[in-house]
Amino acid sequence: MKFYLGCLLFLLSVSCESDPTNRNPYLQEVSFRFDLNLNLPLYNRLNTIGNPVYVDNNGVGTRGAFVMRTGTDTFFAFEASCPNHAPSSCSTMTIDGQNVVCPCEGFTYNLFTGQQLDRPNDGSRYYDLLFYRATQSGNVVTIFN
Fold first, then answer.
1. Tens digits of per-residue pLDDT, 21-34?
2. CB 129 within 8 A of CB 24
3. Percent of residues, the chain, with pLDDT higher than 90
């Protein structure tokens, strides 16, 4: 009995551990909630798969968010500030097709996966896009963290 209790406690302690090395040191994970009405012209592009929009409303992430429909009823949302350096005057990325590009150093990230496409092989640690949750209810997509 003590053996099983010890195993249970060990498994609970391991499952509750967080790995601080996965945490992006450049971006704060701010809490927010924002609704996008797909009937509005501003978000109409989200009615088609693969057409991203930039949401730059106050209080949405650090520098806004990129939202894209990735399937018939799935949406992805990502922070608009480049994940590989602290927010600065050049860190707000711009849309380039289904990718986003950081104007500071030209890094490119894919909006279907959030992955950096041109990761340098220099031994440094590079981060992918900071992911936000996105859910759809009728004609409204809610992005939140």
1. 568 999 998 999 99
2. no
3. 83
Strands (E), the chain: 33-37, 53-55, 65-71, 74-79, 94-96, 99-101, 108-110, 131-137, 140-144
- Structure token digits, residue 5: 């209790």
Other CB atoms within a 10 A radius of the CB of residue 79 amount to 26
Q: Report the mean per-residue pLDDT for the chain.
A: 89
Residue 117 tokens read as 């496409």
Sheet of 65-71, strands arranged across = 33-37, 140-144, 131-137, 74-79, 65-71, 53-55
Helix H or strand E segment including 15: helix 2-15
Residue 76 has what DSSP assignment? E
User: What single-letter amino acid sits at 112?
Assistant: F
Cα dihedral across residues 54, 57, 63, 68: positive or negative:
negative
Going by C-beta distance under 8 Å and a sequence separation of 6 or more, which residues neighbour residue 6? Answer: none
Q: What predicted TM-score, i.e. pTM, was given to this entire model?
A: 0.83
7 pLDDT exceeds 50? no
As given in the structure block, the two tokens for residue 64 are: 């806004």
The answer, yes or no, to whether residue 18 has pLDDT greater than 60, is no
Contact 93, 82 (CB under 8 A): yes
